[in-house]
């Protein structure tokens, strides 16, 4: 029997994917797995029982990844599960920024008591006029799950699409429309595009990437969209560019004191993935990841450990080992198994940065003596008997 705890409300459609071997508990204490969305785990004391954490969404800034890795706790996210919901928000953002639809709606509301509102509207509509997005150049920085969907959809709207991603995956490349221009230098996006949308993770290399230097390269009247992370943009520099008219509109999904109410900004309250479908998809994917890890030892879409998959165990026993990525670990593992008279029928070892993960299938069931011997090896963080 496995137990799990939800730190935030998680879609029941996803939780229903847990079978009778799983029980939801009220606290993290004693839980095998934790599911969450936006709850902050940085100040939490993580109990030894926790083996996996699944974030029903893409961002994991609310989870102490290094601390979890050091405790042998695998952290999962759900990339792509909410991609369509965010894609639709990006498209809506481009349309709202191109024509002053919001201003027009607000004007009508302000004139609701006027009997001649229809005549007034004909006189006033010019101030809300804008442009069409057809034939405009769209630059997409980051061609992951969301970026690819935005790119393909924009081509169907008649836009000329430029994509930049030096680390594009094979899967993303296959899914990308042939009509999209793959750009090798991000500065070309800044210089050439009428609309620019960002879809990269927040890491040290991307923090503040849209800075004054980048903005100065952009075309006058550019529209910038940010549905990824607010810290990707140097927002004080951007507000200055908005005030000067260099940037026509800034559409962002991240409300904060810098942009809320700033001139020529359209700020939504983090609505990108706030759809029933996205929440359902994220929950289903998170539960699937947790179950595969707890039941089979397989890792897919982890952010602090490498992906490692040996399918469903068909041998007599299986062990999983979370450990540091140091020399001679496999040699030490195999010695322990040899000393115990246990034969390894199959083995997988993967590494990611400072951490690594190993799965061993055995010809006989593993026992606690083997587990204790493996745990005694310097650099081993967690050992589990899977079968």
Comma- or semicolon-separated keywords:
387 residues, alpha/beta, Rossmann fold, Alpha-Beta Plaits, 7-stranded parallel β-sheet, 5-stranded parallel β-sheet, 13 helices
CATH class term of the largest domain: Alpha Beta
User: What is the CATH architecture descriptor of the largest domain?
Assistant: 3-Layer(aba) Sandwich
If helices are DSSP runs of H or I spanning 4 or more residues, what is the number of helices? 13
The main sheet comes to: 7 strands, parallel
Strand content: 15-25%
**How many extended strands?**
16
Whole-number total of structural domains: 3
- Rg of Cα set: 25 Å
CATH topology of the largest domain: Rossmann fold
Report how far apart the termini are: 13 Å
Percent range of helical residues = 25-40%
CATH homologous superfamily identity of the largest domain: NAD(P)-binding Rossmann-like Domain
Mean pLDDT reading: 96
The strand order across the widest sheet is: 8-7-6-9-10-11-12
């Amino acid at each position: 029997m496995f137990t799990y705890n939800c730190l935030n409300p998680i879609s029941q459609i996803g939780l229903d994917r847990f079978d009778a071997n799983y029980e939801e508990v009220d606290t993290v204490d004693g839980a095998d797995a934790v599911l969450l969305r936006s709850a902050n785990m940085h100040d939490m004391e993580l109990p030894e029982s926790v083996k996996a954490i699944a974030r029903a969404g893409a961002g994991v800034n609310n989870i102490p990844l290094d601390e979890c890795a050091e405790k042998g706790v695998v952290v999962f996210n759900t990339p792509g599960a909410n991609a369509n919901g965010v894609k639709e928000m990006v498209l809506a953002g481009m349309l709202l920024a191109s024509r002053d639809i919001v201003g027009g709606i607000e004007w009508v509301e302000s004139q609701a008591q006027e009997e001649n509102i229809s005549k007034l509207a004909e006189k006033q509509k010019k101030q809300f006029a804008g442009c069409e997005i057809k034939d405009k150049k769209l630059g997409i920085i980051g061609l992951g799950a969301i970026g690819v969907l935005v790119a393909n959809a924009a081509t169907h709207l008649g836009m000329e699409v430029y994509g930049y991603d030096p680390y594009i995956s094979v899967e993303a490349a296959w899914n990308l429309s042939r009509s999209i221009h793959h750009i090798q230098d991000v500065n070309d996006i800044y210089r050439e595009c009428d609309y620019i949308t960002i879809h990269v993770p927040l890491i040290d290399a991307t923090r503040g990437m849209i800075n004054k230097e980048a903005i100065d390269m952009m075309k006058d009247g550019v529209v910038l969209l940010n549905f990824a992370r607010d810290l990707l943009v140097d927002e004080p520099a951007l507000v200055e560019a908005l005030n000067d008219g260099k940037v026509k509109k800034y559409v962002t999904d991240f409300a904060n004191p810098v942009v809320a109410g700033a001139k020529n900004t359209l700020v939504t309250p983090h609505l990108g993935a706030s759809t029933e479908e996205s929440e359902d998809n994220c929950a289903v994917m998170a539960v699937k990841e947790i179950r595969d890890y707890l039941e089979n030892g397989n890792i897919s879409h982890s952010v602090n450990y490498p992906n490692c998959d040996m399918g469903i165990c068909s041998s007599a026993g299986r062990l999983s080992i979370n450990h540091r990525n140091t020399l001679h670990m496999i040699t030490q593992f195999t010695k322990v198994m040899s000393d115990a008279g246990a034969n390894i029928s199959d083995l997988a070892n993967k590494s990611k940065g400072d951490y690594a993960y190993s799965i061993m299938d055995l010809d006989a069931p593993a026992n606690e003596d083997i587990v204790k011997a493996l745990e005694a090896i310097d650099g081993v963080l967690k050992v589990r008997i899977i079968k």
